[in-house]
Amino acid sequence: MKNWYKDVVGYQIYPSTFKDGNNDGFGDIVGIIDKLDYLKELGIGLIWIGPIYKSPKVDNGYDISNFYEIDEKYGTLEDVKLLLKECKKREIKVIFDLVLNHTSDKHEWFIDACENVNSKYKDYYIFKEPKVIDGIKYPPNNWKGFFEESVWEYVEKIDKYYFHIFSKKMPDLNWDNKDLREEMYAVARFWLDLGVDGFRMDAIAHLAKDTSFKDAYPLDEKLVLDTSKFSNRDELFDYLKEFKEEVLSKYNCMSIGEVGGCASVEDALKYVDYNNGYFNMVFNFDTCWENGAYGSIDKADSEIKTNVKNLKLLFKKWYDGIFNKAWMPIYWLNHDHPRVISQYGNINYRNESGKMLGLTLLFLYGTPFIYQGEEIGMSNVNYSDFDMFNDVHAKNFIEEYKSKYDKEVILRFLNRTSRDNARTMMQWNDSENGGFTNSESVFKVNDNYKIVNVENELKDDDSILNFYKKMIFLRNTKYKNEATLGKLEFIDLDNEDVFAYTKTFDKKIMVIANFRDYIVEFDNYIQENDIILHNYKDINIKNKKILLRPYECFFLEIKGF
Ligand code: GLC
Fold first, then answer.
1. What's the pLDDT tens digit per position in 293-347?
2. 502 close to 509: Cβ distance less than 8 angstroms
3. Is residue 452 a contact partner of residue 446, using CB atoms and an 8 Å limit?
């Protein structure tokens, strides 16, 4: 089964830090339009743009106060229309973020629900009575949300708690309510009617909650994060069925749900099975943290090491589970993760490891999504103080843990894992602010922008960016069928250092990638004239073994297989 979204390479734009087109220090739609030619030349066929709707931006736009309005920081509806037109001209598809799980607390529905005892919007959200013990009011249960807080927040005026799995500034919507569901379908229709090609659907796994709201285990724990209370629940699939029937099936659109770390392969198939799924793909996070960095507050930097074997097993598990049954996205990071070069690569081998990571990903099973700056080897931040962090999750984390851990330990952990890593300004050139803006900005630029930037990379034939262009071109043309339809087989799956695989359709292609900063011996599968791309100038063969140098990688076409 072939669809356009299988053939393209996607690119994620985090709009506030991609490109400032009007020099107010904030990325915007005009800035994106300015850079469409850059993306086209890179070979991109699909862009996913993070939320640009009206928002107080407590969570950088995922807290929406009006679903129909473009936030003035990003531009206007006219700008969006122009963007869609310019994308069409260049044959680039555009998907928007669609946030169906929650609103901002500044949304008029929520304001009304909190102010007005008889508000018709009260049932658009989840309100509960306090639990009263000895005359003292407590939250209705012990559930903890994703942002290090209780899922409950008290509203004095109406003497009720409301439910939120992310920031307290982002109350969850009540999908049990048919009126609310219809409102959200209308939002989706509005943007599809305007001409967007589909959606990345934020936090979609969480629309249905366990409405018994019973305490989570262990019961005596003050706060417990038990994601099963609000992930992949049966009622969710009823809602998605309705959403598909009433909206998605009526348009020629593409849909991709974010199911994060809470969905197994079996869960995922419920969402995306070719025969009776509801979307075209779902993002899982399984392959994002295979170096032990997640929850690694007690670990020294030396304990963080990519588990290459597990990484392969995870890609294999997803491929085995869904090949021929469904399609999936492949990606190393998004705006919620650290930079992949700092995660699985090595900034001391920026050029080698940047290329190696790109190549490893690009021909696996699925539609690749490149995150802004990945193609030039942008890396993690190195902040020396708490107030340098911007992200709401990092801020909550600091508040929660600053009395329990030394400052250095928290900084080490956040520099390694925080979402701020991916959200610094895109580095376009070596001028101040990396050419992202000409004015002051609330956003930060990574200190390395004088060296790591698009302009430098474009000038250098041997750059990561030029390597990306070559590989994307190959994926888009000569090896499209192998990439999209080919059978995936891992080579030497047990190897702890090398990620190698073949994809076979009409042709047979092979990727060999050393994930280490030291030389690794590997069986020699290489005929010199099979080499299509390589990130070193020569080959190092000894005793019929190939000696793979730090982050060395090959892309081969195995002739006459
Ligand atoms: C998703 C987004 C993340 C956001 C959250 C709440 O996980 O990717 O950035 O904070 O949903 O909308």
1. 999 999 999 999 999 999 999 999 999 999 999 999 999 999 999 999 999 999 9
2. yes
3. yes
Cross-strand bridge partners of residue 527: none
Biggest distance spanned by C-alpha atoms of the chain: 81
Distance CA 206, CA 173 (A): 10
Chain CA centroid to CA 472, Å: 20
Residue with tokens 């892309």: 555
What pLDDT score does 117 carry? 86
The answer to whether residues 319 and 488 touch, using CB atoms and an 8 Å cutoff, is: yes
pLDDT tens digits, one per residue of 6-38: 999 999 999 999 999 999 999 999 999 999 999
Active site residue 258: yes
Reference 65, options 100, 109, 27; nearest CA is: 109
Q: Give the span between the Cα atoms of 280 and 46, in whole angstroms.
A: 14
Burial 41-52 (b: 16+ CB within 10 A, else e): ebbbbbbbbbbb
Beta bridge partners of 137: 132
Q: What is the pLDDT of residue 501?
A: 98
Q: Are strands 254-260 and 281-284 parallel, antiparallel or unpaired?
A: parallel
Full DSSP string of 487-500: EEEESSTT-SSEEE
Is residue 1 over pLDDT 60?
no
Q: Is 59 in the pocket of ligand 1 (CB under 6 A)?
A: yes
Q: Ligand 1 pocket check: which of 59, 99, 101 to mutate, most ligand atoms within 8 Å of Cβ?
A: 59
- Which pair of structure tokens corresponds to residue 60? 């950088």
CA distance 422 to 200: 18
**Could you tell me if the CB of 49 is within 6 A of ligand 1?**
no
Residue with tokens 């307290």: 168
Nearest CA to ligand 1 atom 9: 336
Ligand 1 atom nearest to 59, measured from its CA: 10
Cβ atoms of 14 and 50 closer than 8 Å: yes
Contacts of 33 (CB under 8 A, 6+ apart): 21, 79, 82, 83, 86
Residue 324, phi-psi category: left (phi > 0), alpha (psi -120 to 50), beta (remainder): left
d(CA 549, CA 517): 8
Residue that is written with structure tokens 């190092």 in the block: 540
Rounded to the nearest 5 percent, the helix, strand and coil shares of the chain are: 35, 20, 45
376 and 341 Cβ atoms separated by less than 8 Å: no
What is the whole-number distance in angstroms between the Cα of residue 62 and the centre of ligand 1? Answer: 6
26 within 8 A of 16, measured Cβ to Cβ = yes
